[in-house]
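Problem statement: downstream parser choked on a complex file, so we are re-checking the raw output for the FE2/S2 (inorganic) cluster run. The parser issue turned out to be on our end (a line-ending mismatch), but while we're here, posting the original submission so the record is complete.
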Amino acid sequence: MVRNCREVKVREVRFLGAWDEPSDFVELTLDNPGWDGYRPGQFAMLRPKHWGLELSWGRPFSISRSDADSVTFFFQVVGRGTARLARLAPGDEVIIWGPLGNGFSVADQTPTLLLAGGMGIAPFRGYIEKHPTPEFLRIVFAHRASIDSYPYQLMKDMVRAESIHETSPDDLPMIIERIENEVRGAQGGIVLACGPLPFLKTIQQAARLHQIRAELSLERTMACGVGACLGCVCKDGHDKHVQVCARGPVFKADDVHI
Amino acid sequence: MDLRVEFAGLVLKNPIITASGTFGFGLEFMNFGDLKRLGGIVVKGLSLKPREGNPMPRIVETPCGMLNAIGIQNPGVEAFVRDKLPLLPWRETAIIANLYACSAEEFGDLTGVLAGEEGVAALEVNVSCPNVQSGGAAFGQDPTQIRKVTEEVKKRAAGKPVIVKLSPNVTDIGLCARAAQEGGADAVSLINTLLGMAVDIRSRKPRLANVVGGLSGPAIKPVALRCVHQACRAVTIPVIGIGGIGTAEDALEFILVGASAVQVGTANFLRPDQAFRIVDDLPRAMLKARCSNFAELRGSLDLS
Ligand SMILES: Cc1cc2nc3c(=O)[nH]c(=O)nc-3n(C[C@H](O)[C@H](O)[C@H](O)COP(=O)(O)OP(=O)(O)OC[C@H]3O[C@@H](n4cnc5c(N)ncnc54)[C@H](O)[C@@H]3O)c2cc1C
Ligand SMILES: Cc1cc2nc3c(=O)[nH]c(=O)nc-3n(C[C@H](O)[C@H](O)[C@H](O)COP(=O)(O)O)c2cc1C
Ligand code: FES
């Protein structure tokens, strides 16, 4: 696996979701930066070449999928950086460094439950595509925006999939219970999770309670993405600060404080 | 073109050094460029004992800059010497240790550990840390303390060049530079970060767990340039310019006001190969500035 910093061209920027309104959900496909592979769960830092000095950092995104000639990301517009990324056009140049971090475990012929919350669905697309025994996979996807805003259907075509729509905060207790039950039911298999912090906390607690093997992908604000600035740390099981970008972003649920 | 610079007993391939805390231990960047091409690498701040650093959040992006309150998280000087230093190309590139301590004695002990290390080319003393013996005020804010710490480090440095890294959060930077010179410093480097703050009006909370943090990046370059200019006029020892340097032109600006070399910090976050790119770009920038060597450019600012 080559890890490097390259300037690559934008191939395609696709807006997902409602077709007649500008969408905040974006699929961005870039030329393959010369990677000879990646592990699903790994991420890359992106910085369009024409960003001036106003934004000091690149932005981290999970690698959603990658093949010999392209790499695809899937993101939601939440602030200045993502707003600008959504305005890229084919041919624009983006500086990309990666693949970064560790990635999820892949267990051949092992029941594997993928728990995705919102944008946490991004890394699982490639995970499903690359898995040696996809018939052992099942994904449960909790989301707020309309289901068309996410690359869910693609995944539903490949593995067993269920979605849970959170339409109001009143749905939350139901969703938490559902997630807890899903984790409990994963005895003998593994659980891989990516999503917002409260979602991950629920999974961590349930995994602990029922002694289920689980891995959680964490998000942090990142400056360097390579373990150098120490701006993105979390506490590991020994209460030591470790860099999420370099030692994660995927952690064993029993070896991280979130 | 000859990019070499010599000062304070150091011979560097070029004047581009990476700044402490922004380039890890150098090893994190091996995939992005050949470390041997850099003039030097200042490693993350080292303390006698390992430090866990500050709670999260530790960094905030600000317009043309960032705030950080990392709190000198580091594995301790012994782990550095044992685990990191042997992996660095110290024969080819100057590896500079950055020292952090809370008392003059501790600075002395830290120096003692590093003084015998062949792989360490020089010691950079971070005086922007709180002095526990004087109620927590930073050493760097008191010229008497700067001088005392410099003497202590110099005494135990076994001849290794001692660079004192000055804080800009002072009234008279020239006075601080002079205190370092009087304490026996071989060079001064400046600036460290400017004290700043960011708040969130929605949560009504500070954006850094530490409440305040250090501002760095292009936003501070004019302040840094002014400080380097004033320091160069206050001392006869060499000065290393730091603050918002992100291009070869920026580097030349600091050399023009009198710096012997520069450090690249926050610009390493623009892209991880930025320091290498600056090195590559130096000859072009020098030609454009009609400058044939650094000795000729250094301090040639026309103030008439
Ligand atoms: C390893 C890793 C992988 C990631 N993968 C993805 C991905 O595949 N898809 C994706 O959409 N995002 C992903 N993220 C999150 C993404 O990096 C951020 O959303 C992005 O950096 C925000 O940049 P911005 O400039 O738009 O927001 P900023 O201007 O930096 O922030 C604007 C506002 O957004 C808030 N904000 C920042 N980050 C997030 C966030 N993650 N979620 C919600 N609000 C946020 C800030 O608190 C602030 O209020 C990932 C993060 C990490 C660390
Ligand atoms: C994340 C971060 C960590 C830093 N850590 C240290 C440190 O450990 N010791 C030190 O002397 N300076 C430290 N600095 C200060 C830089 O070395 C430099 O002096 C400052 O950032 C100004 O330069 P710049 O604008 O090029 O970044 C740190 C800066 C940043 C941004
Ligand atoms: S983002 Fe710099 S250490 Fe993780």
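For whoever reads this later: Residues A 222-225, 227-232, 243, 245 surround FE2/S2 (inorganic) cluster (ligand 3) (CB under 6 Å).
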